[in-house]
What does this fold into?
Amino acid sequence: MTTTTDVSTSPPAPLRRTSLYDCHVRAGARIVPFAGWEMPVQYAGVVPEHKAVRAAAGLFDVSHMGELEMRGHYAGEVVNYLITNDASKLSDGQALYTCACNEQGTILDDLIVYRCDQDRYLIVCNASNLAKMSAVFAKAAEHHCDFDDRSDRTALIALQGPKAYEILALAGADAAGLSALKSFHFRDAVVANVQCTVARTGYTGEDGAEIFCATADAPALWTQLLALGAPLGLVPIGLGARDTLRLESRLSLYGNDIDDTTNPLEAGLGWVVKMDKGDFVGRAALEEIKAKGLARKLVGFEVTGRGIARHGYPLQDLEGKVVGVCTSGSPGPTVGKNIGLGYLPAAMSAVGTRFAVDCRGKSVEAVVVKTPFYKRAT
Amino acid sequence: MSDVPSGLKYTKDHEWAKVDGGEVTIGVTAFAVEQLGDITLVMIDVKPGDELKAGASFGTIESVKTLSDLFAPISGKVLKVNQELDAKPEMVNEDCYGKAWMIVIESRSAATGELMDDKAYASFLKDSAH
It folds into this structure.
């Protein structure tokens, strides 16, 4: 008789805590497990938090995300070979959003790649994909450049909302100059006496900053930003509102809207696939997918009947046949409608197409709409 | 500690039942509402005249991030359904023991005898908070 080890029965790894965990607990956050971490899902409530970010500003602990660094003369070329977007176009202090695919052209992760200088790139990946992406970048770096997983040493705090830069202006002379940063640009800055790297990026559809600092400095930075920003309406935001904010802005969530069974073209991320930039992992497969034409597309929809679409609910045509799946869905607190994202056959993906969401056995009417559901006034 | 009014009966699914002669009014408790957050949709799947069995789902209540089933605490015939909740689900956040009642069931015999009183429910909440 042979003995096999069933990995599923081995005890799960203990949940990890960011350096801000105590701050969250003191603020009365409800803590939930997320991607191997104990994270705050809400403080005051999803709806008031969501509205605070749209009207003023919110502070998010996203320290669970991964930070990978590639260093050396060939770092830029190695990074560019692993991603679908074109990092060779970046200048120092500029970042871009991209997918990384496998050879089948499906998505390993969605990332932000930062060019610090021509020999140093920072890659921010999803917490749930850190082990996988760390292995991918480490392997690609072998014999070509240096690889460093800085995730444990790096905290990440997002300050998002129309008041974000007004709040940073209160955090010292250097931070006050950050309003000059252009979108998807970054630089080192001292914020509230903490040495940081500040990027004008985010995941909410609002103006804002994502602020990297040393793990040990994060509690002081968090506490001071909240104190400085409170008079302007700044509140801490949990993962619940982070999800509704990104959904209204149609920003993809890995594990929901995109994963290793979906490709960037059908996910509406063709704008980060640069076929003409030279070879990259997944390019041949994506060329083939493009030539064949897309079978399905990720669409945004509004539930017009009484119901809330949720991740995993089947989508039906008007005859009741299952033709797709909802990947994200929730009430949109700012748009005031029940909205969602889901894959539908290409022939049913045009704006205005009517279909139904199978809400636990009930067919509820829905219609394909233009996205983003919410766009801030500029 | 969540509000647990006396004079009501309670279930482990965080519903309350108010016995008034031959009628039992059903709703959700303040603890349930706190757990759910902002209520955005109440769907009651029964109509007056339907027979409900204790433990059967008679609808759903949803907040932004969560969906919960509503379970009948007792068996009986549905007499009334609160249709105001269709348009104003937020009433559940505002007045879960009053205006946001869900359904009224015709009570037979001592059907609510097995439910918890307010003291038992309060200690149940305390125990499950661990």
